[in-house]
């Protein structure tokens, strides 16, 4: 039974105070009530952002940062780092991770795992003395120093703000907007993802205590003095509603909702309250649910989406409330308890909505999943990188002095050994060469023991691919990666996906070209996951891929212009649009568009020699241009299959190209135009079936038409097409065989 059902059955009289419903207090409260019906902030599928996979943990006991796979709870990457301090939080963007130590921030790349120079931090007299709170959202991360009143945004949009004074617990929305509460002044300030400075549009009533939280995708302020929740906007306070029960001013509010409800920790009573708000129609909120915890000094609370994690840092006790309302407890302690300095555990809500509760040294973490279930994981490594639980060191005795007897209990000492009598000497043997010496009989040998069967390995889903990167080229991005950890079962495939498409390659592949994205002009990302027989591993995303300059379009109307000479063909084409660059040359390759050019030409014609008569060759022609920044750009290719004949005869041609613009159903200008098909020198007065293809698939049933008395035909009003960026060609079938046209890239008119 999910938490939403559990809440409805809660005793409505428990811990409640009579409150007027929303309709009786505020009429037409649209802004906030629309918030509470959105997908909860704990849902990793809410919003448009890409969720970061897993969590990085700094183990200060051995000076390493480990990446914990959020699915398998296995370590799949690690980075040596000796400059961090105990309790340092690690936060991650799409491409980098940051270790937030006191007065220091170390950065390393997630793809190459190389540590960069530490980030510039405030000067010594301004440097924060407290441990930073880390937050992740929308590809950026934040370091908030509450006692010093300082905020740093790291990643693609770096920013710094010095507010001064104490800050309450910060929150960040799914669009990357950070909200902070200046406790002494009462100001509520925001830092949008694209802004470089904070603004403070709202002020809490003087003397009132409260906290920020996120419901769905919106930030709100919970006033604990007046028991009121108020919507926040860039212009200040929005609408408000009253809470349905009393909440003490000393309560701690979770930074994110639990299934649309506000989670509040009552520290005095060791209890958590899940408080609903009126629904969109203004109906009275459902009764709150109160879950009692065993007595403790709980001071941290976080939502995992459908469950809760509550931490007592002093005693290292973690309480969890799962989606069925069950309460569980876990101890979060460092493995080495002999350290005289006790480092308190820390609680962090990852971008994947899971809660990670780390021991003070980072050598143990408890993962609280989205439903509130907890699993402890030991974080440590041998030299060979195999994760293990620490072993007790063997007890060793101090070295003994030469005249010192070993320490053996009296009752276990062996009696003094008797002296052996002197051995008798054997008489000398007489030499008798004619008598052979006796030899010992051969000893019976025992059969070899059968080797023990290897221990059974329980396989799990693979880890994350490492070293993921992508480089843009004319034919699309090339994605590179290093092998993922197999976790007991061989990796059989890597699955890549992007908005609107996917591709699967073999488990031994480490690089692939994605031609489907060759013409995408907006920024995008490619995600990769490893698969084995158990299932799919966690997703890892490339950095942002975006084309800077447009390359040349496909050369048009390519044909075999001369084919009567043995061992060679002459190709001709029309000049294409050159995009953002200036023309340099044309290249002609054979067999692949990326093969080494066989011929270079500065005209729209090229002769290819060294061919074998009667053999079919596929020729790829593209224009090379020079971009404004000086880079050479390889244009889109057009291809044509032809064979040298070695004798003069009429050249049979099927030429496809973009024809006149048109409008047909969903096919609209400027993308839409007819595919023009020009047929030359086939059989006269003969019916041929003409079928257009896009990216290798038939997209139109085609038409059967008759050639002229000379074997010619022009089809320019039959096949509307608007598939920009797709590869287009035509097949022509008749009694004398099938002819394939050139292949070219469809462009907008």
Blueprint of the fold:
Elements: H1 3-8, H2 22-25, H3 30-35, E1 55-59, E2 64-68, E3 75-80, E4 89-92, E5 96-101, E6 104-109, E7 133-137, E8 140-145, E9 150-155, E10 159-162, E11 171-172, E12 178-182, E13 187-191, E14 199-203, E15 210-215, E16 218-223, E17 228-233, E18 236-242, E19 252-253, E20 262-266, E21 271-275, E22 289-292, E23 300-303, E24 308-312, E25 317-321, E26 327-331, E27 346-349, E28 355-358, E29 364-368, E30 374-378, E31 466-473, E32 476-482, E33 493-498, E34 501-506, E35 511-513, E36 527-531, E37 540-541, E38 556-562, E39 569-574, E40 582-590, E41 599-601, E42 605-608, E43 617-626, E44 632-634, E45 638-642, E46 653-661, E47 673-680, E48 687-694, E49 697-698, E50 703-706, E51 713-715, E52 720-721, E53 727-734, E54 737-740, E55 744-745
Core attributes:
3 helices; 5-stranded antiparallel sheet; 6-stranded antiparallel sheet
Description of the molecule:
- With 749 residues, the protein is mainly beta.
- The chain is 2% helix and 38% strand.
- The chain contains 3 helices and 55 strands.
- Strands 48, 49, 50, 53, 54 and 55 form a 6-stranded antiparallel sheet that branches. Strands 40, 41, 43, 44 and 45 form a 5-stranded antiparallel sheet that branches. Strands 7-8-9-10 form a 4-stranded antiparallel sheet, with no helix packed on it.
- Mean pLDDT is 81; it is low at 1-50, 381-440 and 453-457.
């Amino acid at each position: 039974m999910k938490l939403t059902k559990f809440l409805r059955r809660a005793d409505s009289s428990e811990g409640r105070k009579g409150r007027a419903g929303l309709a009786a207090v505020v009429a037409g409260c649209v802004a906030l009530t629309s918030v509470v019906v959105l997908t909860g902030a704990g849902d990793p599928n809410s919003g448009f952002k890409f969720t970061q996979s897993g969590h990085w943990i700094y183990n200060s006991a051995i000076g390493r940062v480990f990446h914990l796979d959020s699915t398998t709870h296995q370590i799949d990457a690690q980075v040596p780092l000796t400059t961090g301090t105990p309790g340092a939080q690690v936060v991650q963007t799409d491409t980098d991770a940051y270790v937030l130590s006191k007065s220091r921030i170390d950065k390393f790349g997630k793809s190459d795992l190389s540590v960069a120079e530490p980030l510039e931090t405030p000067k010594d007299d301004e440097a924060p003395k407290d441990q930073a709170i880390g937050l992740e959202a929308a590809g950026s991360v934040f370091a908030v120093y509450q006692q010093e009143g300082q905020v740093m945004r790291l990643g693609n949009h770096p920013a710094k703000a010095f507010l001064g004074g104490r800050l309450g617990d910060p929150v960040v929305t799914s669009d990357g907007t950070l909200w902070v509460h200046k406790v002494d002044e009462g100001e509520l300030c925001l830092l949008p993802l694209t802004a470089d400075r904070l603004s403070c549009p709202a002020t809490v009533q003087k003397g009132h205590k409260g906290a920020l939280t996120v419901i769905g995708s919106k930030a709100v302020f919970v006033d604990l003095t007046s028991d009121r929740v108020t919507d926040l906007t860039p212009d200040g306070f929005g609408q408000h509603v009253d809470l349905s029960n009393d909440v003490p001013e000393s309560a701690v509010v979770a930074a994110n909702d639990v299934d649309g409800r506000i989670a509040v920790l009552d520290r005095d009573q060791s209890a958590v309250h899940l408080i609903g708000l009126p629904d969109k129609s203004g109906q009275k909120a459902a009764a709150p649910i109160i879950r009692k915890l065993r007595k403790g000094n709980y001071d941290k609370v976080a939502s995992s989406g459908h469950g809760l994690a509550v931490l007592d840092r002093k005693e290292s006790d973690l309480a969890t409330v799962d989606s069925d309302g069950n309460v569980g407890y876990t101890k979060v302690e460092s493995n080495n308890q002999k350290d005289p300095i006790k480092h308190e555990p820390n609680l962090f809500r990852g971008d994947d909505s899971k809660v990670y509760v780390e021991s003070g040294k980072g050598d143990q973490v408890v993962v609280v999943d989205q439903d509130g279930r907890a699993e402890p994981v030991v974080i440590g490594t041998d030299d060979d990188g195999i994760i293990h639980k620490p072993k007790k060191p063997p007890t060793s005795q101090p070295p003994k002095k030469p005249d010192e007897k070993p320490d053996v209990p009296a009752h276990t000492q062996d009696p003094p050994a008797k002296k052996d009598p002197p051995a008798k000497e054997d008489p000398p043997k007489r030499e008798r060469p004619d008598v052979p010496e006796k030899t010992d009989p051969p000893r019976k040998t025992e059969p070899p023991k059968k080797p023990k069967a290897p221990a059974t390995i329980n396989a799990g889903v693979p880890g994350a691919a490492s070293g993921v990167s992508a480089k843009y080229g004319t034919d699309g991005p090339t994605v590179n990666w290093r092998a993922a950890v197999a976790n007991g079962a061989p990796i059989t495939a890597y699955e890549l996906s992007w908005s609107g498409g996917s591709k699967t390659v073999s488990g031994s592949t480490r690089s692939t070209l994605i031609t489907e994205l060759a013409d995408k002009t907006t920024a995008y990302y490619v995600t990769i996951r490893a698969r084995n027989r158990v299932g799919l591993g966690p997703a890892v995303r490339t950095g942002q891929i975006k084309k800077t300059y447009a390359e040349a379009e496909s050369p048009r109307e390519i044909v075999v212009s001369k084919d009567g000479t043995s061992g060679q063909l002459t190709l001709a084409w029309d000049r294409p649009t050159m995009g953002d660059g200036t023309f340099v040359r044309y290249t002609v390759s054979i067999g692949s568009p990326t093969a080494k050019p066989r011929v270079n030409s500065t005209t729209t014609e090229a002769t290819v020699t060294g061919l074998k008569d009667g053999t079919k060759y596929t020729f790829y022609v593209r224009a090379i241009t020079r971009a404004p920044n000086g880079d050479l750009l390889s244009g889109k290719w057009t291809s044509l299959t032809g064979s040298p004949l070695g004798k003069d005869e009429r050249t049979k041609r099927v030429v496809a190209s973009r024809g006149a613009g048109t409008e047909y159903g969903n096919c609209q200008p400027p993308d839409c135009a007819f595919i023009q098909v020009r047929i030359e020198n086939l059989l006269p007065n003969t019916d041929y079936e003409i079928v257009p293809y896009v990216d290798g698939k038939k997209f139109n049933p085609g038409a059967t038409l008759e050639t002229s008395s000379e074997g010619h035909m022009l089809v320019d009003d039959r096949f509307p097409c608007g598939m920009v960026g797709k590869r287009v060609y035509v097949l022509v079938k008749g009694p004398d065989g099938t002819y394939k046209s050139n292949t070219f890239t469809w462009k907008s008119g």
